[in-house]
Design goal:
Helix content is about 60%, strand content about 0%. The chain is mainly alpha-helical and about 150 residues long. α2 runs parallel beside α5, α4 packs parallel to α6 and α5 runs antiparallel to α6. It starts with 16 loop residues before the first helix and ends in a 7-residue tail after the last helix.
Length: about 150
């Protein structure tokens, strides 16, 4: 996350320096843009390797425990990233829906890879944080998260 407390008022009720200083705001936006490009590259890697990650060497629909744990941690991290950026960069009202579209695509891709196959009766440990995140996004007026 770029700034967990940058948008919250300080204890004296004043706004933070990041909100009032245009150069700090521009630096924050640049840092977010660079980090988001890297995140989207990872999304492309997951998409390109979805079959190998999801199936592993086991039967169809099987996912290795280590892959599942990594996807679960990634889903949890994306939840924290969304909490940090939901009012600015990932807001459905910010005018740049590409970030939100790509973010939802990554979350659904993780959930899909971690599904455990079509015969699975329960959510995997990686699907739960992804579905929780999509729920939070939809409650924050994101039409893409439905």
């Amino acid at each position: 996350s770029v700034r967990p407390s940058a948008t919250s008022p300080t204890s004296a009720g004043k706004t933070s320096p990041i909100e009032t200083d245009p150069s700090l705001s521009a630096q924050r936006q640049h840092l977010y843009d660079v980090a988001f490009v890297v995140l989207m590259r990872f999304c492309n890697f997951l998409r390109d390797n979805e079959k190998e990650i999801g199936d592993g060497d086991g039967p169809v629909g099987y996912i290795e425990t280590t892959h599942l744990q990594v996807l679960a941690k990634l889903g949890q991290g994306l939840g924290r990233l969304y909490e940090s950026c939901k009012d600015n960069e990932l807001s459905p009202h910010n005018g740049n829906s590409d970030s939100e579209i790509n973010f939802v695509e990554l979350v659904t891709l993780i959930s899909s890879i971690a599904s455990g196959g079509s015969g699975a009766k329960f959510l995997t440990q990686a699907q739960k944080p992804c579905l929780d995140l999509l729920k939070v996004m939809s409650m924050n007026s994101s039409p893409l998260a439905f």
